[in-house]
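Q: Convert this sequence to structure tokens.
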Amino acid sequence: MSSDNEHHFLYILLLSAVTVVASQPSSCPHGWILRGSSCYLFITSTPEDWMTATSYCDILHAKLVEIETVAEDEFLRLHLLDKKLTGGFWIGLSDIAVEGEWIWTSTQESPTYSDWFPGQPDNIKHLQDCGQLLGGTYGFHWDDEICTRTKNFICEKELNGDVSIIG
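A:
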């Protein structure tokens, strides 16, 4: 191989390697679980009220989980059941602004998918304005809860589209 062809070949090889690295999805931070294009962090060691949980996720450049599909809902439910977790887990759903109008807090949009437990939301004593996945007999289906109660929670962040170039 001539020197020019060798350099051209090496350049093509290097370009191919960079393209492969650039097209690979970023990985989740340590402790987060990858599913699809999102990373999930299940916080079970420091239960918080809904607003504090929201702030905690914000600090991590994430949001309280916003469940958009049956597949995402099933992934979360199966993970919680597999880990034998119990109680409630805050999600990013609220009707604080307008009673009865449930919205995802990061987008201010109504859910296109929902999985309320039968009879929910019921807004007991007109105090339940925050959404949770509730375990036990609820099987981690959606429920409304008083926002000041402390619960475990789930943060979600989209994988970033950053390009990683090695070299």
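Strands lie at 33-35, 38-48, 63-64, 88-94, 103-104, 128-134, 141-146, 151-158.
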